[in-house]
């Protein structure tokens, strides 16, 4: 594992881990005894040692301002996180927050002791009773089932948001070290040994990008539903929603593995591979959004392409991508928009909602357009000629004979009389 890989894996860890622990890359230079205890898979793993409060505070401030200098967060976010870290680590205990009922209050607010969410954004999209995963113990699931079995207790549970995941968190907090050992045994999840859990962390299994992705998706949905939604808002939601479906399928596969009867070693290996694929997919999606540039009526986000037709953004199908050839996405989007406008006009004039453009009408759009001869040639060859009702191949023969696309203007003039 190279130094640059270590740096990327480090960046992917949740902030609370980076702030509160010294982290050392777990690599092949470590003594053999560590390999026996922690396994042979090195990538993304770190040995962690708790920091003191003062050191953790200084580290939090330093990390935040470094990320600000590198353009990874703005000044306001940097100051808020730094001040918040100082208060959490150096401020006196707040009896209103740090007391016997703190775990219950934290569960009610969906905020764990380290500041992260108890129920992930992904789980929050599900009904209360279904907010569980392979890391939720059977006792918590059973308690939730009992609450859901009675109309009165179900009403209370749904009203207060008492999900299996939150029940698990509360039990874990009150049971302390005993719960750390016993609760994982009551789950289908392939747990690491206690030593590994306490003294190592894995940026593949604990990756901040997944939570960032679902938070972005949640925000994008709100903006998309606004009557003032911009093109950027609409595309962002459409794209993230598309990616979330693919990620959801990977999570489903991961749950199948964890709930299977496979040996723990196989569960760990396959689950980690699926999680790595999830992490890569969401990280790529977030990076694509950072670099998004909307043209007049089209936008590319990685391999996903969108174009605007009749005021609505459409996702380009695989078949359309294959036909695109050397044609620019913006020109294709403009052509699709022109054909849709002409179709709408024809339907209004004829009074027939099913009316579509005929071959000559499609050619006329190309004839009067300001596209270059090369663009007209691509559009005619890839989208019109292949769909002609009479399967006319005259243009294809003429183009081969003259060895040039420049005959397209004369040919369209000939066809559109």
Give a brief outline of the structure.
By secondary structure, the chain is mainly alpha-helical. Helices cover 61% and strands 7% of the residues.
Topology:
Blueprint: H1 3-11, H2 15-20, E1 21-25, H3 32-38, E2 45-50, H4 53-69, H5 75-90, H6 102-109, H7 121-124, H8 138-148, H9 151-160, H10 164-185, H11 194-199, E3 200-202, H12 208-224, H13 231-258, H14 264-290, E4 298-301, E5 304-309, E6 312-315, H15 318-324, H16 329-350, H17 359-368, H18 373-384, H19 394-402, H20 408-415
Antiparallel strand pairs: 1-2, 2-3, 4-5, 5-6
Helix pairs in contact: 4-5, 6-10, 8-9, 8-10, 12-13, 13-14, 17-18, 17-20
Largest sheet: 3 strands, antiparallel
Note the quaternary state here: single chain
The helix-strand sequence is HHEHEHHHHHHHHEHHHEEEHHHHHH
How would the global form be characterised?
elongated
Alpha-carbon distance between the two ends: 68 Å
Query: What's the number of extended β-strand segments?
Result: 6
Alpha carbon gyration radius: 29 Å
Question: Kindly state the mean pLDDT as a whole number?
Answer: 78
- Percent helix among the residues? 55-70%
Helical stretch count?
20
* Uncertain stretches of 5 or more adjacent residues: 90-96
β-strand amount:
5-15%
Structural class: mainly alpha
| Strand line-up across the major sheet | 1-2-3
């Amino acid at each position: 594992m190279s130094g640059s890989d270590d740096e990327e894996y480090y960046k992917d860890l949740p902030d609370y881990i980076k702030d509160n622990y010294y982290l050392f890359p777990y690599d092949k230079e470590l003594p053999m005894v560590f390999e026996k205890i922690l396994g042979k898979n090195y990538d993304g793993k770190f040995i962690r040692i708790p920091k003191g409060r003062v050191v953790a505070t200084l580290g939090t401030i330093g990390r935040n301002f470094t990320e600000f200098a590198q353009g990874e967060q703005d000044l306001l976010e940097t100051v808020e996180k730094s001040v918040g870290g100082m208060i959490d680590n150096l401020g006196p205990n707040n009896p209103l927050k740090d007391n016997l009922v703190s775990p219950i209050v934290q569960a009610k607010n969906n905020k764990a002791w380290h500041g992260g969410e108890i129920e992930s954004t992904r789980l929050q999209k599900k009904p209360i009773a279904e907010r569980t995963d392979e890391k939720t113990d059977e006792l918590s699931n059973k308690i939730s089932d009992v609450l859901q079995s009675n109309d009165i207790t179900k009403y209370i549970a749904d009203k207060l948001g008492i999900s299996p995941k939150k029940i698990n968190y509360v039990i874990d907090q009150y049971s302390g070290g005993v719960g750390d050992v016993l609760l994982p045994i009551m789950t289908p999840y392939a747990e690491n040994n206690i030593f590994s859990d306490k003294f190592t962390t894995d940026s593949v299994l604990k990756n901040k990008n997944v939570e960032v992705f679902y938070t972005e998706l949640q925000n994008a949905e709100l903006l998309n539903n606004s009557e003032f939604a911009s093109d950027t808002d609409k595309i962002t939601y459409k794209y993230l929603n598309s990616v979330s479906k693919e990620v959801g399928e990977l999570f489903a596969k991961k749950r199948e593995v964890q709930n299977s009867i496979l040996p723990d070693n196989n569960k760990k290996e396959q689950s980690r591979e699926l999680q790595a694929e999830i992490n890569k997919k969401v990280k790529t999606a977030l990076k694509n959004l950072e670099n998004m540039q909307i043209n007049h009526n089209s936008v590319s986000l990685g391999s996903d392409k969108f174009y605007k037709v009749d005021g609505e953004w459409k996702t380009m199908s695989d078949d359309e991508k294959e036909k695109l050839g050397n044609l620019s996405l913006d020109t294709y989007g403009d052509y699709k928009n022109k054909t849709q406008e002409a179709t709408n006009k024809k339907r209004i004039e004829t009074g027939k909602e099913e009316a579509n453009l005929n071959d000559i009408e499609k050619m006329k759009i190309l004839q009067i357009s300001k596209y270059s001869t090369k663009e007209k040639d691509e559009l005619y060859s890839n989208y019109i000629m292949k769909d002609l009702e009479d399967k006319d191949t005259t243009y294809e023969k003429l183009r081969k004979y003259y060895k040039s696309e420049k005959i397209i203007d004369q040919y369209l003039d000939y066809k559109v009389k």
